Amino acid sequence: MWMMQLHIGGLGLFEFEQCRKDINKITKEVGNLRIAGKDASELIKSSDEKKQLTAEKEIEVQEAQAALSSKLELIGNLVHDSVPISNDEVCMTLYMANNVIIRAWGQKRVEPKLKNHVELVELLGIADTKKGANVAGGRGFYLKGDGVRLNQALINFGLDFLEKRGYTSLQTPFFMRKDIMAKCAQLAQFDEELYKVTGEGEDKYLIATAEQPLCAYHLDDWIHPSQLPLRYAGYSSCFRKEAGSHGRDTLGIFRVHQFEKVEQFCLTSPNGNESWDMHEEMIKNSEEFYKMLNIPYQVVAIVSGALNDAAAKKYDLEGWYPASNTYRELVSCSNCTDYQSRRLEIRFGQKKSNEQAKQYVHLLNSTLTATERTMCCILENYQREDGVEIPEVLRDFMGGKTFLPFPNTPEKEAKGKKSKA
Hints:
Oligomer: single chain
Strand content: 15-25%
Number of helices: 12
EC number: 6.1.1.11
Enzyme class: ligase
Pfam family, one: Seryl_tRNA_N
Distance between the termini: 74 Å
Keywords: Aminoacyl-tRNA synthetase, ATP-binding, Ligase, Nucleotide-binding, Protein biosynthesis
GO biological process, one term: seryl-tRNA aminoacylation
Radius of gyration: 28 Å
């Protein structure tokens, strides 16, 4: 279908250009006739007809080009040679992951009868999901007391961690114009992830990740080689409909519609291996962050079929959740090469007159922490019988607190204890 649109668009463009040439030719002939004092009415009539035809052909060309552009936007980035080739992350026939485990770190906690993060949040009283749902609907929540402090501790530790590694902190806008969002997000995300904000002026969309406004920060810029690489530590609240995740992790604060995030975002030269070296540096940063939190993890290379359109290669860092005896995603780290920068016209070098000579910077993104999800992982790994320890690196950000005791008892457990008495 799109090949036919390409053919129609090309044919229409040829006819449009031919009409313009005919008009120019007729205009010259009319001028010559008038100079000679001869009647030019027939040629003028022919010129008017050609102008009408030209206007019609111009509309046809614009429509064909718009249709073609929308189809071209569905074509993803070129996949790097090192990416595992498979349509699915999990091989259902063999019940094994097709994603390739690159490395693992830490001593996994494996004990019977550990409490999961949903139970621990309730026991500690650090979030109120019932009142949150009453006010905001499903998956709404209020963070309370030490939950607020722990969340802020992760944000502040994350920003401090990245600033010490040469990153510039940016707090991003929480919504974006539709035309700019369309250059940063896939079309499917508009239906499955993004909330539309309608009001005065044009519609806008709430961001699903800090990556989106960070991606557009250098919109239409020329980046001189001497400025690169650029490293940004983005901080934002994020908003996701999670339309495709019904029934998955709906309890607690693990998968919610609103959450906070600290994001790595880097721009590099398109030349040599600079962006691939940066990709490795960024995943190593995320690994070091979770090592400092003492969270066991594994790094996996994501298969080709599970990559989003922009990513040429992606790593996930999965943290260990001992209560469910499994690894779960905490970090997504992607090299998008020049896929997004071409749409956003973020160019490399100095302004050039020759359009063919243009180069585009490479854009890379990586989660450092989606704080509510990281909190869940900390709770499960640091739990004790009487409460939860605070990771050592977060204590200074929590006023020196080292331990969160259990002040609350879940309703079912309380009833059980009462009946035994």
